[in-house]
Amino acid sequence: MSNEIIVEDSIFRVGRVISVDGRSIRVSVDKAKNSSHLVYKGDLIKNVSVGSYIKIIKGFTIIIGKVEGEFTYEDKIASTKEYSSDKEKINRSLSVSLLGFFNKKEFERGIKEMPLVDNECYLLDRQEFNQVHDFIRKTDEPLVIGTLTLEKGQTITVGIDSLFASHIGIFGNTGSGKSYTLAKLYFELFKIYKDNQKFREKSNFFLLDFNGEYVTESENVIIPKDYKNIYRLTTKNNDGQKYPISKETLYDHSFWAIVLEATEKTQTPFLRRAIGNSSLADKIKTNDSLKELIKNTFWLGIAKNDGELGQKVLIEFLSELYYSLGYSNLLDIRDAIRERIKFYARDNKREFVYIDAEGEWHWDNDMRTKILDHFEELELPDTEINDLDVLKIQIIFQYYDEIIKGFANIEHLAPLIKRLGKNFSDIRKVIEAKEDVSTSKNFTIVSLKEVNIHMRKILPLLLCKQLYEEQKTKNDETSHLNIIIDEAHNILSRDSNRESEQWKDYRLETFEEIIKEGRKFGVFLTLASQRPSDISPTIISQLHNYFLHRLINNNDIIAVEKTISYLDKLSFEYLPILPTGTCILAGLSAQVPVVIDIGAIEKEFEPNNKTRSLIENWKD
Ligand SMILES: Nc1ncnc2c1ncn2[C@@H]1O[C@H](COP(=O)(O)OP(=O)(O)OP(=O)(O)O)[C@@H](O)[C@H]1O
Ligand SMILES: [Mg+2]
After folding, report:
1. Beta bridge partners of 29
2. Does 571 contact ligand 1 (Cβ within 6 A)?
3. Which is a Pfam family this sequence falls into (predicted)?
């Protein structure tokens, strides 16, 4: 052994293993190493402390552990000696958890061998330290995201493949830097690839922005505005931007099942029948055939001679149509007929009868002619009814047709028809059907800031499901979709009283499916949220990479602790005290959990989320 190695060994040696208990190891520190720094070749080297790494040598195997705790106790024998230095009077021991090992000069996570008592322990040299923090696999490319917090100057790079072909979770309290971290990841990614033709063709990024943080005036957040589509949706009025959907989507009953919050067993099949009824659609499109349709349906309802049904058709059917048609005199006709029709007893049964202005009674065919005469005065809008309205009217006709014929149960379908008006009027403010929805840009931001709470639940589900299904049917192994959702608790929370249980299950199941199955089709989620405890544990536990910012609430910490297996005890202790912009990176793309300072984004590309300064605004 050369002199150099002996010196190095003696300097870098910190102690030896004194106990092995499962994954936790105790190391007794050499008394000469009870100082905070060591001097080696004129350099000051930080001695072991909580949070640092040590290597344990077991024959030819090098095992790496992380120091989690430090303890001292008095050395009784040394204390009784009069001339010993104070340093020698204490024994120092470390608790260490095992992280991985060196495999042919490369660091690998996991445990292959356990150390033995009396194995020697050393500090890591610079090269080994770098290897432990080198997260890039051989086939991957690096992306610089920040620097190590505890080791200033050590940049942290992650593999692009291992990060972006994975589900990412970013959690932390408000103001802890989640949105900034999210923006940083994609900012760095786009910086490298944005001009690559293949990147633009093969990948698709879709960002849901609940607070309008990513749609500043300059529209340059994350990437310059020329590279992305921005949709600022609003339900406040009809003048906002609209998200384009294809004609195919428009006639997809599962799309409407989401918009109308349809139940799976009865309402969704009904919608399928309604939307698939193309002959109905054709009739609605021209005024003459529409008039016929109204007359026929109305008469069908009366002819059943069912008092309750007749009243319903008379009043609700015509009113419903009136509100969907835009303009018509249907209400006048309804009132005129209502005045003339009575439900009366004749020959031991009750029947509808038409009493004309002269007081004469008309039954059967006679009555039919009289009633239908009223519709001669029907005026309908002379502009063409747009596709969305045709669809809505189609649903109304199908509903009354089935009810009148007794095919469907009112109790099952009525709630759906009740939602029709409100949900339709909301959805038409935010989407439009287009022949061609293709775009050359592969980054889309949808801002839901101005969208009402009701649509905030429906729209994300609608859009994400749509994108997911599209990607699934593409069946192209080279294509890739990233769905990015900031403030993800808005749609992934388990407790919400605004919706039915069934609907909530459906919403969660959809995202759970993307999490569970998405990888196969190249669909990946990036979620940021302040409330991990609110989000379904199935979703949190299936994420691959975690950026954990400051978390103070105990429930949130527990939620993270329960579901994330990558994190060691020490990292959990850090969670409540992390400063803004600092987070723990754990998961598949980091061999060891590391505390990192997220690097800065150029000013122009930052999200719009400045923490307000009150006094700045209050100064005269
Ligand atoms: N790495 C960082 N470098 C510089 N500034 C940062 C960094 N991270 C966060 N900030 C700043 O801290 C503030 C809060 O950050 P951010 O809006 O990202 O927090 P958040 O966790 O998304 O909060 P909220 O939950 O309210 O959305 C912002 O002004 C942001 O510019
Ligand atoms: Mg945010």
Report:
1. 15, 92
2. no
3. DUF87
Do 433 and 246 form a contact (C-beta atoms < 8 A)?
yes
Cβ(172) to ligand 1 under 6 A?
yes
Superfamily of structural domain 157-242+439-609: P-loop containing nucleotide triphosphate hydrolases (3.40.50.300)
pLDDT tens per residue, range 179-237: 999 999 999 999 999 999 999 999 999 999 999 999 988 889 999 989 999 999 999 99
Q: Three-state SS for 609? A: coil
Is-same-fold flag (3-132; 157-242+439-609)? no
Q: Of all protein residues, whose CA lies closest to atom 18 belonging to ligand 1?
A: 177
Ligand at shortest distance from the CA of 598? 1
Q: What are the distances in angstroms from CA 492 to CA 141, 240, 485, 508, 528?
A: 32, 26, 10, 6, 11
| Residue nearest to ligand 1 atom 2, measured at CA | 581
Residue identifier of the C-alpha nearest atom 16 of ligand 1? 177
Q: Are 464 and 483 in contact (CB under 8 A)?
A: yes
| 351 exposure class (CB count in 10 Å sphere: 0-12, 13-18, 19+) | middle
CB 324 within 8 A of CB 396: yes
Q: Residue 98 forms beta bridges with which residues?
A: 65
**Reported CATH class of domain 3-132:** mainly beta
pLDDT at 84 > cutoff 70: no
For the chain, give the mean pLDDT.
Answer: 88
Residues with CB under 5 A from ligand 2 (ion): 178-179
Q: Which of 526, 531, 580, 603 to mutate to test the pocket of ligand 1 (most atoms within 8 A of CB)?
A: 580
Top mean-pLDDT range of 111-115, 290-294, 383-387? 290-294
Q: What is the pLDDT of residue 250?
A: 87
**Mean pLDDT throughout 132-137?**
85
Give CA–CA dist 391/393, Å, rounded: 5
| Residue owning the nearest CA to atom 27 of ligand 1 | 174
Owner of token pair 């920040």: 146
Is the CB of 174 inside a 6 Å radius of any atom of ligand 1?
A: yes
- Domain ranges for the chain, please list them: 3-132, 157-242+439-609, 267-408
- Tens of pLDDT, residues 91-113: 889 999 888 898 877 888 888 88
* 576: pLDDT strictly greater than 60: yes
